[in-house]
Every structure is written in structure tokens, then in C-alpha cells.
Amino acid sequence: MKVIEPLGRRFFWVKSTGNIVAQRGEMAAGIESTKEEDFAVYVELKPYDPDAIEMTTFEPGQYSEEFATASSWRFNPDTGEIEFAYPDPNAPTDPPVYQSPLTQQVAELKSETAALNLAIIDVWETLAAGGGA
């Protein structure tokens, strides 16, 4: 039985290039469809071989800040991960530089900072105990 539920963004992108060829925005309520069903409905997908297209679906609200602030996005064909380009007011004519989602970068930095803090505490405790000399 199909369930009516909030639906997150969905992207169809070319596996070899990462270029997005079709997408669905977030929906407050809907019934999730399969890749095969979407290929039958989306006109943009008709010229493509389904095996050449990857489908990625996000949770509702996932990367909402990135989608609101980024100037463009694509998928990295090597990793299959979404990448965002953010406008640079100091160099508006430069080509976009794609990077992993900022929320992901912040989470990684927090994790690295916590690990470094633990290492600093360990060194501090070793020195305070008279070791390390």
C-alpha cells in the first residue's frame, strides 16, 4: 500500500558527468514513486537510457540551507555526492567552485576539533603528570 507522506527533493543525473537532467522539489504530501514510474512521467528523462541516469532522493529539509544559498549544484560522478557552488561577491565572474554541502563540512570540522581537543587534553595531562620530558 502506498503512503501519503512529505517528499524530499529528487534528482536525476547523468552518471558519467554529474549533470542534473530532471528534478522534483520538496512536497508537503505525496506518494513516493519508483525510478521506472518517473521515467514514464518526466518528459526530460525520455531521451536517456535509464541505466545512464542515477536517481538521488533527499529527506524533506535535507540541505535546505544549501539549496537556499547556493548558486548551483551538481553531482560528483566519481563519488555520487551532491556538490554546491556558492556565489563569491569578490569574484562574481569566476567559474563556480563546487564543494561538499556546508552542513557536512561543519559537522566534519566539529568532529576534527573534538579530536584535537582530546589530543591537547591528553598532552596536557601527560605534561602535568611530569611526563614527556
Provide an overview of this structure:
- The chain is of the alpha+beta class and 133 residues long.
- It folds into two domains: 4-100, no CATH class; 101-133.
- Helices cover 30% and strands 26% of the residues.
- It contains three helices and eight strands, in the order ββββαβαβββα.
- Strands 3-2-5 form a three-stranded antiparallel beta sheet, with no helix packed on it. Strands 6-7-8 form a three-stranded antiparallel beta sheet, with no helix packed on it. Strands 1-4 form a two-stranded antiparallel ribbon.
- Strand 2 (10-14) and strand 3 form a beta hairpin.
Question: Can you lay out the helices and strands and say which pair or pack?
Answer:
Layout: E1 4-7, E2 10-14, E3 20-24, E4 27-31, H1 35-41, E5 53-57, H2 64-69, E6 72-75, E7 82-85, E8 98-99, H3 102-128
Short description:
The protein folds into two domains: 4-100, no CATH class; 101-133. It is built from three helices and eight strands, in the order E-E-E-E-H-E-H-E-E-E-H.
- Form type: elongated
Distance, first to last CA? 69 Å
Helix content: 25-40%
**Looking at the chains present, what oligomeric state does this protein adopt?**
single chain
Low-confidence stretches: none
The proportion of residues in beta strands is: 25-35%
Strand ordering within the main sheet: 3-2-5
Compressed to H and E, one letter per element, the order equals EEEEHEHEEEH
Nearest-angstrom radius of gyration?
21 Å
The number of helical runs is: 3
- Average the pLDDT over all residues and give the rounded result: 90
Number of strands: 8
Domains, number: 2
